[in-house]
Amino acid sequence: MKKIYIRVVVFALFVFASGLLSCKKNFLGATTITNLNQSTVFADSTNTAAFLANIYSNIAVSEAANSMGNGGLDAAGDEGAPGTLLPSQATYWASGIINAANVTDNIYSTCYTQIRAVNQLLANISKTKLTLPDNQPGSRAQMKAEARFLRAWYYAILIKHYGGVPLVGNNIYNYTDPIPVQRATYAACVSYITSECDSAAMVLPYTQAGPNYGRASGGACQALKARVLLYAASPLFNGTTLVADAGGSIDASIVGYPVADPQRWVLAKNAAYAVLRSGSYALNVDSSNKSRPGLGFVGLFCERSNPEYILQVMYSDIDYGHQLEAFWDPPSRGGANGAQPYQEVVDLFPMIDGKDTLTSAYKYNSQNPYANRDPRLGYTIIHDQTVLPVRLNPPNRTPVNIYLTKNADGSVTNTVGADAVTFGTTTGYYINKMLDTNACSTDITQRTRRCQPLMRYAEVLLNYAEAYNESKGTDSAYVVLKALRARAGIQAGADGMYGLAVGMGQTQMRTAIQLERRLELAYEGFRFWDVRRWKIAGTEENKLFHGMMVLHSGSAVTYNVFAILPQHSFSARMYLWPLPQQEIGKSKDLVQNPGY
User: Fold this and answer.
1) What one-character DSSP code corresponds to residue 191?
2) CA–CA distance from 290 to each of 408, 489, 528, 544 (Å)?
3) How far apart (Å, rounded) are the C-alpha atoms in residues 2 and 373?
4) Cellular location of this protein (predicted)?
5) pLDDT confidence of 121, banded at 50, 70, 90?
6) Do the beta carbons of residue 204 and residue 142 sit within 8 Å?
7) According to DSSP H, which parts of 472-580 are helical?
8) How far is it between the farthest Cα atoms of the chain?
9) Where are the beta strands (DSSP E) in 9-138?
10) Which of 80, 137, 229, 233 is least surrounded, with the fewest CB atoms within 10 Å of its CB?
11) For residue 479, is pLDDT > 60?
12) Cβ distance 551 to 406 under 8 Å?
């Protein structure tokens, strides 16, 4: 079998497009196929494989760097500002004006379209001429297991957005059928997703390699299960008070578990530990250059295959170098419209010894603010004078000029081009996370073979540390945090603690884990959901954020923090997304989330 790529054969795109056209009436509308009908598709093994490949095509629908129009989820929360000032999904969330009428239906419609495609495949794959043994990739058994994992994946996306959603089982509905759209309880959705993961994991190989790299695996099934159970154990859902907090009459069991149960943390811990115990994954570590600590961290995002990736978005040869760079690179390197990091994110990165700027042995200098910091800062954030490749000239690497010039008369002018504050970025920063160190946007001579991670081992480690701390103690959590900090290039220190405090209790460790999660997983699509499941978004996303203005006056350089208006606004209803109004309008049985 060939690799699963986003770019699929023409017929699969046609099938998918036909499905979208038929969904104008209802998200579960029948797929319209003309000369290429179901019999034709599933009678041929190549066509069937391509049909499955197309179900993979939207697995990053929630994490896409442009999912909000002028940024991704990172532009809708406390990680960054939208890439432009134009109204968008990002500005609706940041300003608190999101509602059922202006929220995108992309998540809802895309997930259910692909869930329906899974059900079509499962219902028809018995007609496909497949002769491979069940234990080989490309066999009927493994294709069915991949499809079941993908169905669980899309349901997991739905419940983190909306809470409980309609569960359609294996049914494929046509226009003439009465379509049940009553929302299942959150508990029922969690149970369904985890059981599907368990069933698929029994069939799939634990890891995929060679021509099958990028397909669903047993490890991906277990990692998804661990993630879903972690969310289920978290304060937003475990003993939910959302209905009372946001207002409304919806049954609380739809948006979470009405009664908290600490045992849910144990389930989450055990599920994450199953991945760790397998020994199939590891942190990507590179200590080859002592003068450049943290190479394992930055290097993993440039490698197509590494020991840390569990599930990733695969791109074809034609697409190399034209995804993240296109949005996150500065304008001088061909980027545009990506989220732009806030100063608050920069300030969170500790010094190189792992201590904060007040307690570190390295003296923090506000006029040289990026010196002696956690190496992940430079690998995550592009700031003034970050060195990047030059477009159309691969060997050359030059600093990015994100500064303004202060003249002798006190006036300020932009003399350095499109990258500076108020011209290219509203915050003084660009995102560097996951960008290939040798690639530039839209430059065919500087492509990358990178693929984008959706689940990686570092996340599973952090999931385990969090669940362990909430259910058992702090010892294993210490092991995880030290491992991540060591890989990041933070100094161990005389005590071997990598800047971590000794003897932390549960509350202190919780704070440490939340910080480490924010640093390690920044701009990978996690923070928007973490502040919600922890129920801290009311504090973290209801504030005024800041940027950095760099001024050059002759040889003197000054750094000035400035406020970015308007202030973000968050209300309790925003812990969940509203169901799109057009879906609510189709049936009286589909109830809206509280506060909308």
Assistant:
1) H
2) 43, 9, 34, 39
3) 43
4) Cell outer membrane
5) very high
6) yes
7) 475-488, 506-520, 527-533, 537-540
8) 80
9) 80-81
10) 137
11) yes
12) yes
- 118: helix, strand or coil: helix
Cα separation, 192 vs 228, whole angstroms: 11
With beta carbons less than 8 A apart as the criterion, state whether 68 and 82 touch.
yes
**Angle, CA of 77, 78 and 84, to the nearest 5°:** 65
Amino acid letter at 130?
L
Q: What is the DSSP letter of 425?
A: B
- Direct distance between the N- and C-terminal alpha carbons of the chain, in angstroms, rounded to an integer: 46
Can you tell me whether residue 546 is helix, strand or coil?
strand
Specify the pairing of strand 80-81 against strand 430-431.
unpaired
- Residue 95 has what DSSP assignment? H
Cα–Cα nearest to 55, from 153, 123, 190, 194: 153
Looking up tokens 């495609």, which residue turns up? 117
Of residues 382, 380, 416, 421, the one with CA closest to residue 401? 416
CA neighbor of 276 nearest in space, from 223, 338, 211: 223
- In three-state secondary structure terms, 23 is coil
How far apart are alpha carbons 383 and 373 in whole angstroms?
13
Task: Output phi, psi for 300, to 5 deg.
Answer: -65, -30
Helix (H) or strand (E) holding 80: strand 80-81
Predicted confidence at residue 588, as pLDDT, reads 87
* Three-class DSSP category at 244: helix
The region of weakest confidence among 217-226, 394-403, 573-582 is 394-403
Give the pair of three-digit tokens for residue 538.
Answer: 């009311």
Q: Considering the chain, what is the average pLDDT of its residues?
A: 90
What is the C-alpha separation between 53 and 146, in angstroms, rounded?
10
State whether residue 577 is helix, strand or coil.
Answer: coil
Scored b (16 or more CB within 10 A) or e, 521-545 reads bbbbbbbbbbbbbbbebeebbeeeb
545-553 vs 404-406, strand pairing mode: parallel
Residue spans of alpha helices (H) in 349-405 = 375-380
Per the listing, tokens 């000239």 go with 393
Q: Please give the structure tokens belonging to residue 581.
A: 């109004």
The residues pairing with 550 across neighbouring beta strands, listed in sequence order, are 559
Residue 543 token pair: 């504030």
pLDDT one-digit tens code per residue, 339-379:
999 999 999 999 999 999 999 999 999 999 999 999 999 99
User: Of 152, 547, 192, which Cα lies nearest the Cα of 341?
Assistant: 547
- The residue with tokens 């001088």 is 332
The residue written with tokens 């169905």 in the block is 151
